[in-house]
Amino acid sequence: AGGMDEQKLRVLMRQGRIMLILDAFDEVPENLRPVLEREIATMVELYRGMSLIVSTRPPFVLSLGRFARYTIERLNAERVRGFLQSQAGHNAGAILHRLHGLQLAQLASNTLLLALLCDQLERGGDVPRTRPQLLQAAVDAVERVERQKVSSGGMVLLGWSERVTVVTRLAQRS
Protein backbone atom coordinates (compact mmCIF):
# COMPACT_ATOMS: atom_id res chain seq x y z
CA ALA A 1 0.00 0.00 0.00
CA GLY A 2 3.12 2.24 -0.07
CA GLY A 3 2.73 4.45 2.99
CA MET A 4 -1.03 3.98 3.22
CA ASP A 5 -2.30 3.26 6.70
CA GLU A 6 -4.70 0.43 7.43
CA GLN A 7 -7.63 2.75 8.19
CA LYS A 8 -7.36 4.51 4.83
CA LEU A 9 -7.13 1.15 3.07
CA ARG A 10 -10.32 -0.01 4.81
CA VAL A 11 -12.13 3.16 3.72
CA LEU A 12 -11.04 2.62 0.10
CA MET A 13 -12.19 -1.00 0.29
CA ARG A 14 -15.61 0.04 1.54
CA GLN A 15 -15.88 2.63 -1.24
CA GLY A 16 -15.16 0.00 -3.88
CA ARG A 17 -11.92 1.69 -4.91
CA ILE A 18 -9.82 -1.42 -4.29
CA MET A 19 -9.72 -4.46 -6.54
CA LEU A 20 -8.18 -7.47 -4.83
CA ILE A 21 -6.60 -9.90 -7.30
CA LEU A 22 -5.53 -13.27 -5.91
CA ASP A 23 -3.69 -15.10 -8.65
CA ALA A 24 -2.81 -18.82 -8.68
CA PHE A 25 -4.90 -19.69 -5.61
CA ASP A 26 -4.41 -23.38 -6.46
CA GLU A 27 -0.75 -22.95 -5.47
CA VAL A 28 -1.68 -22.22 -1.86
CA PRO A 29 -0.81 -25.23 0.33
CA GLU A 30 -3.90 -27.40 0.89
CA ASN A 31 -3.79 -27.06 4.67
CA LEU A 32 -4.03 -23.24 4.38
CA ARG A 33 -6.85 -23.06 1.82
CA PRO A 34 -9.81 -23.39 4.22
CA VAL A 35 -8.42 -20.63 6.46
CA LEU A 36 -7.79 -18.33 3.50
CA GLU A 37 -11.23 -19.03 2.04
CA ARG A 38 -12.83 -18.02 5.35
CA GLU A 39 -10.70 -14.85 5.42
CA ILE A 40 -11.75 -14.01 1.85
CA ALA A 41 -15.42 -14.62 2.64
CA THR A 42 -15.13 -12.35 5.69
CA MET A 43 -13.47 -9.58 3.65
CA VAL A 44 -16.14 -9.78 0.96
CA GLU A 45 -18.86 -9.55 3.59
CA LEU A 46 -17.21 -6.60 5.37
CA TYR A 47 -16.24 -4.70 2.21
CA ARG A 48 -19.16 -5.26 -0.14
CA GLY A 49 -17.99 -2.56 -2.56
CA MET A 50 -14.61 -4.18 -3.11
CA SER A 51 -14.01 -6.12 -6.31
CA LEU A 52 -12.40 -9.53 -6.00
CA ILE A 53 -10.84 -11.73 -8.66
CA VAL A 54 -9.45 -15.13 -7.71
CA SER A 55 -7.69 -17.15 -10.37
CA THR A 56 -6.99 -20.83 -10.08
CA ARG A 57 -6.30 -23.77 -12.34
CA PRO A 58 -8.75 -26.64 -12.68
CA PRO A 59 -9.68 -28.88 -11.03
CA PHE A 60 -9.37 -26.66 -7.94
CA VAL A 61 -12.52 -24.70 -7.16
CA LEU A 62 -13.05 -22.31 -4.28
CA SER A 63 -15.90 -23.16 -1.96
CA LEU A 64 -16.98 -19.55 -1.49
CA GLY A 65 -20.54 -20.12 -2.60
CA ARG A 66 -22.30 -17.23 -4.33
CA PHE A 67 -19.46 -16.07 -6.57
CA ALA A 68 -19.66 -16.27 -10.33
CA ARG A 69 -17.23 -18.73 -11.86
CA TYR A 70 -15.70 -18.34 -15.29
CA THR A 71 -13.45 -20.66 -17.22
CA ILE A 72 -10.89 -18.95 -19.38
CA GLU A 73 -9.83 -21.14 -22.26
CA ARG A 74 -6.38 -20.83 -23.76
CA LEU A 75 -6.38 -18.93 -27.00
CA ASN A 76 -5.25 -20.70 -30.13
CA ALA A 77 -3.69 -18.77 -33.03
CA GLU A 78 -7.03 -18.41 -34.82
CA ARG A 79 -8.76 -16.99 -31.74
CA VAL A 80 -5.90 -14.57 -31.13
CA ARG A 81 -6.20 -13.27 -34.70
CA GLY A 82 -9.98 -12.99 -34.37
CA PHE A 83 -9.74 -11.16 -31.06
CA LEU A 84 -7.14 -8.75 -32.41
CA GLN A 85 -9.18 -8.07 -35.53
CA SER A 86 -12.29 -7.32 -33.50
CA GLN A 87 -10.46 -5.08 -31.05
CA ALA A 88 -7.59 -3.53 -32.99
CA GLY A 89 -8.97 -3.53 -36.53
CA HIS A 90 -6.33 -2.57 -39.08
CA ASN A 91 -3.59 -2.72 -36.40
CA ALA A 92 -4.25 -6.43 -35.73
CA GLY A 93 -1.54 -7.73 -38.05
CA ALA A 94 1.10 -5.40 -36.65
CA ILE A 95 0.22 -6.29 -33.06
CA LEU A 96 0.30 -10.02 -33.83
CA HIS A 97 3.68 -9.59 -35.51
CA ARG A 98 5.03 -7.75 -32.45
CA LEU A 99 3.67 -10.42 -30.09
CA HIS A 100 5.53 -13.11 -31.99
CA GLY A 101 8.64 -10.97 -32.50
CA LEU A 102 8.86 -10.25 -28.79
CA GLN A 103 8.10 -13.92 -28.03
CA LEU A 104 5.02 -12.94 -26.05
CA ALA A 105 2.53 -15.29 -27.74
CA GLN A 106 2.69 -17.69 -24.75
CA LEU A 107 1.83 -14.87 -22.34
CA ALA A 108 -1.22 -13.97 -24.47
CA SER A 109 -2.94 -17.18 -23.38
CA ASN A 110 -6.39 -15.66 -22.70
CA THR A 111 -8.32 -12.57 -23.75
CA LEU A 112 -7.62 -10.68 -20.53
CA LEU A 113 -3.87 -11.15 -20.82
CA LEU A 114 -3.97 -10.51 -24.57
CA ALA A 115 -5.92 -7.28 -24.07
CA LEU A 116 -3.48 -6.15 -21.40
CA LEU A 117 -0.54 -6.95 -23.68
CA CYS A 118 -2.14 -5.03 -26.56
CA ASP A 119 -2.63 -2.06 -24.29
CA GLN A 120 1.02 -2.17 -23.30
CA LEU A 121 2.11 -2.47 -26.94
CA GLU A 122 -0.04 0.54 -27.86
CA ARG A 123 1.40 2.61 -25.01
CA GLY A 124 4.97 1.88 -26.08
CA GLY A 125 7.85 1.65 -23.65
CA ASP A 126 8.74 -1.53 -21.81
CA VAL A 127 6.44 -4.48 -22.47
CA PRO A 128 5.91 -6.86 -19.53
CA ARG A 129 7.48 -10.28 -20.04
CA THR A 130 5.80 -12.16 -17.20
CA ARG A 131 2.26 -12.53 -15.90
CA PRO A 132 2.99 -10.67 -12.62
CA GLN A 133 4.55 -7.77 -14.55
CA LEU A 134 1.52 -7.66 -16.84
CA LEU A 135 -0.92 -7.63 -13.91
CA GLN A 136 1.11 -4.86 -12.25
CA ALA A 137 0.86 -2.87 -15.48
CA ALA A 138 -2.94 -3.31 -15.30
CA VAL A 139 -2.99 -2.03 -11.72
CA ASP A 140 -0.88 0.94 -12.81
CA ALA A 141 -3.39 1.63 -15.60
CA VAL A 142 -6.27 1.65 -13.09
CA GLU A 143 -4.33 4.10 -10.94
CA ARG A 144 -3.85 6.36 -14.00
CA VAL A 145 -7.62 6.28 -14.62
CA GLU A 146 -8.29 7.25 -11.02
CA ARG A 147 -5.87 10.19 -11.32
CA GLN A 148 -7.54 11.22 -14.62
CA LYS A 149 -10.96 11.12 -12.98
CA VAL A 150 -9.79 13.53 -10.31
CA SER A 151 -8.13 15.92 -12.77
CA SER A 152 -10.97 15.88 -15.34
CA GLY A 153 -13.96 16.09 -13.02
CA GLY A 154 -15.01 12.46 -13.52
CA MET A 155 -15.12 12.11 -17.34
CA VAL A 156 -12.53 9.63 -18.64
CA LEU A 157 -11.94 7.91 -21.98
CA LEU A 158 -10.80 4.37 -21.23
CA GLY A 159 -7.93 2.51 -22.95
CA TRP A 160 -7.78 -1.25 -23.49
CA SER A 161 -6.66 -2.34 -20.06
CA GLU A 162 -9.07 0.05 -18.37
CA ARG A 163 -11.95 -1.37 -20.43
CA VAL A 164 -10.85 -4.89 -19.49
CA THR A 165 -10.78 -3.89 -15.82
CA VAL A 166 -14.29 -2.44 -15.98
CA VAL A 167 -15.64 -5.56 -17.71
CA THR A 168 -13.90 -7.75 -15.16
CA ARG A 169 -15.48 -5.80 -12.30
CA LEU A 170 -18.90 -6.12 -13.88
CA ALA A 171 -18.41 -9.86 -14.39
CA GLN A 172 -17.37 -10.26 -10.75
CA ARG A 173 -20.53 -8.55 -9.52
CA SER A 174 -22.99 -10.46 -11.72
What do you see in this structure?
This protein has 174 residues and is mostly helical. It has helices spanning 6-14, 33-46, 77-88, 92-101, 111-123, 131-152, 160-173, and strands at residues 19-22, 51-54. α3 packs across α4. The chain is globular.
How do you describe this structure in short?
The chain is mainly alpha-helical and 174 residues long. It has helices at 6-14, 33-46, 77-88, 92-101, 111-123, 131-152, 160-173; strands spanning 19-22, 51-54.
Q: How is the secondary structure organized here?
A:
Elements: H1 6-14, E1 19-22, H2 33-46, E2 51-54, H3 77-88, H4 92-101, H5 111-123, H6 131-152, H7 160-173
Parallel strand pairs: 1-2
Helix pairs in contact: 3-4, 5-6
What's the helix-strand series?
A: HEHEHHHHH
Give the low-pLDDT segments. none
Radius of gyration: 17 Å
Mean pLDDT, as a whole number?
77
Structural class: mainly alpha
Counting DSSP E segments of at least 2 residues, the number of strands comes to: 2
> From the structure provided, what is the oligomeric state, counting identical versus distinct chains?
single chain
- Strand line-up in the sheet with most strands: 1-2
Shape: globular
If helices are DSSP runs of H or I spanning 4 or more residues, what is the number of helices? 7
- How much of the residues is beta strand, in percent? under 5%
Q: What is the helical fraction, as a range of percent?
A: 40-55%
The separation of the N and C termini measures 28 Å
Described by strand count, sense and barrel closure, the largest sheet is: 2 strands, parallel
